[in-house]
Write a structure and sequence with these properties.
Length: 117
């Protein structure tokens, strides 16, 4: 099995629906997100790639136009947690990239979420 990944970044704000109103995430705040998309294949294409990294530029374009410097509550159709952001990106790009098997979202250097259906 061959596995590749590519990282993308963006900055955005959000407010999380929390069980306690005094939870810090219940207030508007922002993150510098790091998104990693993971692809895998048992076979390489005729050029020796799982996927040419240049073909993933559509992910960057989507992130830049849809998520970067946005309020994620206006974009993500669920509570904009890392988990829901990862699923949102996965579902958006799985039809374009059948090799996609997981999306990772990091809000801080010490935290990350991996969505792998």
């Amino acid at each position: 099995m061959y596995k590749i990944s590519k990282q993308f970044s963006f900055s955005a704000s959000h407010i999380l629906n929390m069980p306690r109103a005094d939870h810090p995430c219940a207030r508007m705040h922002g993150h510098n997100y790091l998104i990693t998309i993971h692809l895998k294949s048992k076979e390489l294409n005729r050029f020796g790639f799982v996927k040419d990294y240049n073909e993933l530029n559509t992910v960057k374009k989507f992130i830049d136009e849809t998520l970067d410097h946005r309020h994620l509550n206006d974009v993500i159709p669920a509570n904009p947690t890392s988990e829901n952001i990862a699923r949102f990106i996965y579902e958006r790009f799985k039809p374009d990239f059948p090799e996609l098997y997981a999306v990772e979202v990091s809000e801080t250097p010490k935290t990350s979420c991996l969505y792998e259906p």
